[in-house]
Amino acid sequence: MGEQLGERMRSLMKQYGITQAQLAGYAGTSQSSISKYLSGAQEPGGEILANIATALHTTSAELLGKPEPTISTSFGFVKEYCARHGGDLTEDEVAELITTLLAARKERNDTDR
């Protein structure tokens, strides 16, 4: 599983133009640890994994190759992301989050009936 995690991390780092040193800073760990995660030699703990996921604009589950979460389960991620990065969001990101929240609300209302 570690190699797949590393591949996903590497792909997202490339997509967002994030270096190992930058990711280490965002995640609160060392560049050496990031290198080990990328090679599959080591896997991050829960908190570091969550920080890496946030820095790479994804979820821990997606990094680990878990099934795609539904909109309802994405609600928790949106709340956590806003709490951590609310002041840093662009107008487009705010609009996307609002759309996600409204879709989650509709999905919850539809399942309650």
From TrEMBL:
Q: Which domain of life is it from?
A: Bacteria
Ranges for domain HTH cro/C1-type: 9-63
Short name of any one Pfam family annotated for the protein: HTH_3
Molecular functions (GO terms): DNA binding
Q: What is this protein called?
A: XRE family transcriptional regulator
Q: Which organism is it from?
A: Bifidobacterium olomucense
